[in-house]
From TrEMBL:
The keyword Disulfide bond applies. Belongs to the thioredoxin family. It comes from the Bacteria. InterPro entries: Thioredoxin, Thioredoxin-like_sf, Thioredoxin_CS, Thioredoxin_domain. SUPFAM superfamilies: Thioredoxin-like (SSF52833). This is Thioredoxin. Keywords: Disulfide bond, Electron transport, Redox-active center, Transport.
Length: 107
């Protein structure tokens, strides 16, 4: 189950390996589609998912120049490495995260 964080608590929840931070808002239709898919993938792949509601908590969105949501920030070993904007089908997300994990395995 994804962990809800704020901009102040996010870094304390970053873990070893792949962490995906899901930037979303309650009013965002595509976010409502993406979030459950990320929760499923968190159970299926060796990754952690954090959720951050950017409505009223814009520090992380500002830091990474996020212009639209949903946006996923990918962290590897606690460091930001990629920004992905938009909602995608589960199969495409799984393929992207699997490729990411294979490319970073052992690094």
């Amino acid at each position: 189950m994804p962990t809800a964080v704020t901009s102040e608590t996010m870094t304390t929840h970053l873990s070893e390996g792949l962490t995906v931070v899901d930037l979303w808002a309650e009013w965002c239709g595509p976010c409502k589609i993406l979030s459950p898919l990320l929760a499923e993938l968190e159970q299926e792949l060796p990754m952690r998912v954090l959720t951050l509601d950017v409505e009223g908590d814009t520090a992380v969105a500002d830091q990474f120049h996020v212009q639209s949501i949903p946006t996923m920030l990918l962290y590897w070993q606690g460091k930001p490495v990629e920004k992905v904007t938009g909602a995608y089908p589960k199969a495409k997300l799984r393929a992207h995260f699997t490729q990411f994990l294979e490319a970073h395995d052992g690094k």
